[in-house]
Amino acid sequence: MKHRIVGIWLVVWLVGLVLTGCVAAPAAAPAAEGGEPQRGGILTVARSADVNLWDPKYTNDNYSLWAEMQIYATLMQNSPDGLQLNPWLAESYEFNEDATEVTFKLHDDAQFCDGSPITAEDVRWSLERSREPDSNVSWQFFSNPVIEVVDDLTLKFTLDRPNVAFPHYLTLWGMSVLSKKHAEAVGVEALSTQPLGSGPFCLDRWDKGQLVVLKPNPGYWGEDRPLVDEVHLRVVQDDNARVLQVQTGEVDIALDIPYAQVEALKGAPGVEVFVDTLYGTAAIPLNQRTVPQFADKKIRQAMAHAIDRQALVDAVLLGQGEAAKSPFYGPAILYWTGDFEIPYDLEKARQLMAESSAPDGFATELIITSGDTMAAQTAVILKDQLAQINIDVTITPVEAGTWWEMWSGGTYQMLYKLGTNDVIDPAENLPFDFWSLEDGGSDAAFTGFYNERIVELSQAAEREFDNAKRAELYYELQQIAMDETPQLWLFHPSNRWATRDNIEGFSVFPTGLHRFWLASKTQ
């Protein structure tokens, strides 16, 4: 109930916000003891995976997009808790009366990392490019906007239907602003390795598989200018190595702390450990195009009932998470309901398999990313649980780039993923998880699943002003989705990270995002 109250408040607040164009001021980074945050120094961060590429158009893995969001700006920006919406590259914005047009005014002093001005044409070009047929982020363009350059600093979006939540979607990584001039100079294919930043940081160096070096953008317009001289992102796949490095002070921040080491690390001298909410779900997409059995709903339902989600939470997360009861990305997401939870029921699972098109079971393959401890532990438990209904699972670890190629290319059978919500509204991920390519989605998370009613409900909810009616639409959507189970929704993990005790202003947000430009390092 607490989350439902928060959700209702947000929608009411958002409607008033976007129709008036009023916004809250961005939150400042916490100050070091004694006043202003200290400036200078090198912030060294250990993360478990490298960037795959620097082109937002083709990005759909978290480790790439979280790095891209350090160097690229978007028109709008969410507050750390995801509840407030603020202009960022935009100085202001304004809706017309029926929320079918929204006009943005850009800051007149915003510059790319080469010192050239960021113009409305750069924004239009970047967004239109992200909508092209070969884009991996075209699903982010809700309400089919027509983008018009009014002048060098002004853009107008004309929507094909009212959408009061539209400015929220302009915070997503697919809305990142690139330099049209730079792309024409180096060629669009080179943008994956030679990005020109438009945000707080510039990419200074990339030793693939090892290190990313970021330096502040001299042309960054925001009051929240980077506080450190450099950020070094080290790729440290081994969980124990990341923990050891933050303990010894070799790194200032360690991300993705293993659950098993959280309590022990809390007692380490000079280290602070944090565990917080994540708007995210660990899930297993089932590819109906490569495994015919997954097109049989009884088999999908049998698999869902054969999984003991609480056992996964207890064993993998050590109790620091929640079992998934909805396709929405956690109880904090608007309109979430646990009314359609799929209970662990092995007898029912076996009965469904007996009634299915494969009563004797079958063999399949589960792809996970190498070095992902949570994925590996989850996969081993799932293999044992599904074996009880005669589904023989082979676990195959692959590198992150291969994992993404197999998933987006539809060449996998089963695949472990951890998806996150970048806003608190469920509308963000529904096109990705459920819409077909023709609808503007991603072939239902590249599974080949399609349910016309789910698409109708999500599209109706997207344009619905009345909060109660929107809640009804999403309630029915969750009921159908949990019955169909095109993915095996498993659990909601938590964010875990550790810092040295001289680091101020850094946190991992519930959306999974983090902003290194807010961090400072006391000398």
Describe the model.
The chain is α+β, with helices and mostly antiparallel strands and 523 residues long. It folds into three domains: 2-25 and 55-184, Dipeptide-binding Protein, domain 1 (Alpha-Beta Complex); 31-48 and 200-277 and 495-523, 3-Layer(aba) Sandwich (D-Maltodextrin-Binding Protein, domain 2), CATH 3.40.190.10; 280-492, Roll (Dipeptide-binding Protein, domain 3). It is 30% helix and 21% strand. The chain is built from 16 helices and 22 strands. Strand 15, helix 11 and strand 16 (391-398) form a beta-alpha-beta unit. The chain is globular and about 65 Å long.
Could you list some keywords that capture this structure?
523 residues; alpha+beta; Dipeptide-binding Protein, domain 1; D-Maltodextrin-Binding Protein, domain 2; Dipeptide-binding Protein, domain 3; 3 domains; seven-stranded mixed sheet; four-stranded antiparallel sheet; 16 helices
Strands ordered across the widest β-sheet: 8-9-10-1-11-20-12
How many distinct helices?
Answer: 16
Low confidence ranges: 1-33
Give the total of domains: 3
CATH class of the largest domain: Alpha Beta
Counting DSSP E segments of at least 2 residues, the number of strands comes to 22
What number is the mean pLDDT? Answer: 90
Q: Kindly estimate the percentage of residues that lie in beta strands according to DSSP.
A: 15-25%
Structural class: alpha+beta
Gross morphology is globular
CATH superfamily of the largest domain: Dipeptide-binding Protein, Domain 3
* Percentage of residues in helical conformation: 25-40%
**Based on the structure, what is the oligomeric state of the protein chains?**
single chain
- What name does CATH use for the topology of the largest domain? Dipeptide-binding Protein, domain 3
